[in-house]
Fold Stringent starvation protein A.
Amino acid sequence: MATPSSKKTLMTLYSSDDCVFAHRVRFVLEEKAMEYQIIEVDLAHKPEELAELNSYNQVPTLLDRDLAIHESVLIMEYLDERFPHPPLIPVDPISRAKVRLGLLRFDQDWFAPLFQPGFSPEQIKTAKEQIRSTMAGLSTIFTQQRFLFGDDLSILDCAIAPLLWRLPILDISLPAAAKATQEYMDRLFQMESFKRSLTPAEKAMR
């Protein structure tokens, strides 16, 4: 039986203005040029309908007609399959597997320690050091290609861009030698779809 929330005619994203995971989804929605509405969720006073749609009572949650999806990676993959232009995930199985492994690493090694509870200061420090060293090491690759998986934007870029935007507030700086990585970040941040994905709270982060 459809809940009152599931009768919304526009695709609806339950979001929070500074949630890094919701930011990922907003970036993909804007890159796909989708018409959608946002319901801003006060995480201290969540609406009852969110728990009805998502038993974990978390953002982001996407409502598309009678389908409610949570977890940012699942939402991004769903959007790319439902609205395949422009494509963000490769077609061939090997490349798709590589992209998904990259997403898994981002979430387990970086996003979880930095943005989810239950991690020690040492684990957080390790995650920050890994981000700094990995992104600096990718500078060589960015001298040869525009994005993480070639010259076209992919779901990997959409997934990591919100974290890279937050590097200043995370107190993570890249070495001066990582010029190509900084240019990659600037390339992401100058995309109109990324600019549109920013909330006022996120704009204030830089």
